[in-house]
Amino acid sequence: RMLEHLDGGRGAVISPRLLHSFSHGELQVAVTAPLPAGARRWPPEDLPDVPDALVALGERGTKALADLRWWQEVEDRVNQGAESAGMPALMELIEETGSLLGDRELQVGFQHGDWVPWNLARLDHERRPVVWDWEYGRLQAPVGLDLLHGAYQSERLLRGASPAEAFASAHRHRPSELTVLHTAQV
Predict the structure, then answer these.
(1) How far is the C-alpha of 84 from the C-alpha of 98, rounded, in Å?
(2) Looking at residue 4, what is its pLDDT?
(3) H helices of the chain, where?
(4) How many angstroms separate the CA atoms of 155 and 51, rounded?
């Protein structure tokens, strides 16, 4: 769905063009055109900001957290995982987060969902990043989470930081509601 929406890139980014999609059992399969010739992996120490033009491709505006489908999906995933792992405290944490921030109006827009160096490439003489791996993309999600999650993942997986160290580094100087939502998402 995200690749159809982007149609190979819409000004803000360059993305693979969707050639065909179909269901195979419970899987959704997407066949795409190759990445542009000359695309080189994005340097891990230089995670680019999420372009405003990309955020604007989504359903932009403000919305209460409790009304976001994104949050409902986070709640469902955490609750299912907590139940199967026998960790009711996680369900309580999600419930508390929803109670605390559910009425909070958040800036929302298009989200990649996994804005990390290994999903990005650059081209010579092109300012726009080449971006793939859109399965976590959403047309309406809290603005700012992409860059926050990318910083966390880079610290954790590229630099070998512990989860606590990665959270501390990524969350430094970020709005508190985003850090709480990111923690719940992870």
Answers:
(1) 21
(2) 84
(3) 2-6, 52-55, 69-85, 88-101, 145-153, 163-171, 176-185
(4) 21
DSSP, collapsed to helix, strand or coil, labels residue 6 as: helix
In angstroms, rounded to a whole number, what is the distance separating the alpha carbons of residues 132 and 114?
9
pLDDT digits (tens, 9 = 90+) for 42-71: 888 788 888 787 887 778 899 999 999 999
Interhelix angle 176-185/88-101, nearest 10 degrees: 150
Task: For residues 127 and 123, give the distance between their C-alpha atoms in angstroms, rounded to a whole number.
Answer: 8
pLDDT in tens, 102-150: 999 999 998 999 999 999 999 998 888 999 999 899 989 999 999 899 9
Angle of helix 88-101 relative to helix 69-85, nearest 10 degrees?
Answer: 160
Residue 186: per-residue pLDDT: 87
Return the percent helix, strand and coil in the chain, to nearest 5. 40, 20, 40
φ, ψ of residue 89 to 5 degrees: the values are -60, -30
Residue among 143, 161, 140, 142 nearest 152 (CA): 161
What are the tens digits of pLDDT across the range 14-53?
Answer: 999 999 999 999 998 999 999 999 999 988 878 888 878 7
Q: Which helix (H) or strand (E) holds 29?
A: strand 27-32
Q: What is the CB-side half-sphere exposure of residue 91 using CA atoms within 13 A? A: 11
> What is the tens place of the pLDDT at every residue in 4-13?
888 777 678 8
